[in-house]
Each structure stands twice: as C-alpha cells, then as structure tokens.
Design goal:
Layout: H1 5-14, H2 20-28, E1 32-35, E2 41-48, E3 55-62, E4 69-74
Length: 83
C-alpha cells in the first residue's frame, strides 16, 4: 500500500477503526470515482464496519496517481450514482 505521511500519521491515528485494506479494496472496485479540482481523486465503496456490522460507504482520497492514499473516512452523505 502506498500512502502519504498525512494518512499514516494523522488519518489512521484519528480514525483507528479504518482498515487500510478497505481503502485498497475501494480503489480497486469503487462504487463511484470522481476527479477533484486539485488533481486528487475520490473513490467511494461499501465496507462492513466491524464495530456494528453495518455496511457503510467509505470515501478514499488518493493523489493524482490514483494509488497513493491521502485520506479516508465514512461518507454519511453519499448519494450514489455518477456525479
């Protein structure tokens, strides 16, 4: 897994429940993908939260290469479909 220092030192510290393997799975098979204006890429994918067994949508933000993970969080407002 490739990740930014921010992801490794800040995101995983603030959100220890996020499994980096989920991020890789979302990037490999997203429900939706969207380019940001700053060159980064957003991916959304469904994952099962082990804390309560519910399926949630995880948003993963990568650098422009589409591989290096920069941020990840559960997206409560995900509506699905194309942008």
């Amino acid at each position: 897994m490739q990740a930014t220092r921010y992801f490794l030192e800040q995101v995983l510290r603030k959100r220890p429940y996020i499994d980096p393997a989920w991020c890789e799975a979302v990037i490999a098979s997203p429900l939706r993908r969207e380019d940001q204006g700053d060159g980064r890429i957003r991916f959304w994918g469904a994952v099962t939260d082990p804390r309560d067994g519910r399926t949630r949508v995880l948003r993963v933000v990568t650098l422009g290469d589409g591989i290096t993970i920069h941020n990840a969080f559960f997206d409560r407002d995900f509506q699905g479909g194309p942008p």
